[in-house]
Amino acid sequence: MAISPLAEALPLSKPVPTRLGLAVSFFTFLLLAISSVIGSASAFAQDRQPSTKHFDVEELVDTVLRQNAGIQALQASVFAAEARVTPAGSLSDPRLSAAVAPETLDGLDTPAGRTRGPNVRVEISQEIPWPGTLGLRADAARKDAQAASQDVASLRLRLAAATRTLYADWRYVHRALEINNANQKLLEDLYDVAESRYAAGLGRQHDLLQAAVQRQRLKHQAIKLQRLQSDVRAKINRLMTRSPNAALAPPPALPALGKTRTYDVLRKEAMSSHPVLVRIEKEIAAHKDREALARKAFYPDFKVFGGYNSLWDAAEKRWVVGVGLSLPLDRGKYRAQLNEARAQLMQREFELKDQRSELLSALKRAYAAAEEAEHTINLYEGKLAPLARANLSAARAAYGAGDGSFLDVVTAEEKQLEVDLNLERARTDYFSARAQIARWSGTHMNATHSDTRFNLDMFFQ
């Protein structure tokens, strides 16, 4: 059984506490309870702490890119990769060795009658690889670091697109709930009219039942939208490394976007500078350096050394300097290493081709989705939405005059609800498709924010 901190603080071997002891224990418990409540309230307030900044979708993107833990983790890996450049291009540490002849520890008598100290041998050596090896190692490590930095850029593009898409979904779910609420009020008015007509003997009970069924359907739709709202809120907070239940205010209208550039222009920009492709290109360059390193392995490495050896009687023989070299006799081992380097280089080259194809495919799909959504918006705004409103107005007028059926009104109301939701969905899809175009082309969305800025206190409320 778990023991509370307060119970651990009380000695178990003491007798029954006095009134003073009980009072102290009570006040201690009270202080702990108050501090716990204050701590919880402080954490809750921190999660809901508003800011005085202004805020729009692009500032939401900036907040995500600044606070997301995934980006910080990748940046740390870039720092680690950059730190490996200097060691890769440096010589190995010099090696110092010393030895002594144990039988000479008590000294030796020389022919001249003098006593010599212990015989010792000291040597210091430095290994030196074949010329150009250190430079290639440093170049390969530097290109690995540059490739790692492109991973950060790729993640920033992906997170920016995801944030803009979630922002659009956040806007959509609020508009959908507003449309649902307006239709529920409209249906309540229709129900009141049908009830009045039924009471006056001019309507049918079937009309009331149809209205009741439609009301329940709208309420169920509202519940589904509220669940979607909770999901989107949790995803946005996750990107900002916040609590999933942290409050978010409804956003304003989506910002107006400029004209989309042509697919050919976007394709050229993606092929020339997209971080995903640049990363693989840097990896290819690093593997070319490693292939060159594998070729240099066929050549010997050197070692220079110098030392002192007191075993020699003649003093002029005791100091020595020399040069050594490795003997790469096992050529098969080095050919295998060269083949490995070539295979890894070939792998990256094929990955580059595959990634180019995948990137262009994703860009084309996003571009087609944006074109389709733009066409849908124009269709609904220019034709379907006005027709749906006119159809509902005519059906209500005919029913009020006793010329139409209640089913016609309910059907017209359903059509307008569908048109309104489809229009909002098309606006959301267009904004999301533009966000994906920016991701796969590696460019900006080219958004204009004339009337879309609002206080951050509105968003984190």
From TrEMBL:
InterPro entries xrefs: MdtP/NodT-like, OMP_efflux
Pfam families named in the record: OEP
Source taxon at top rank: Bacteria
Coiled coil: 335-383
Keywords: Coiled coil, Membrane, Transmembrane, Transmembrane helix
Annotated transmembrane regions: 20-45
Family of the protein in this entry: Belongs to the outer membrane factor (OMF) (TC 1.B.17) family.
Protein name listed in UniProt: Outer membrane efflux protein
Source species of the chain: Salinisphaera dokdonensis CL-ES53
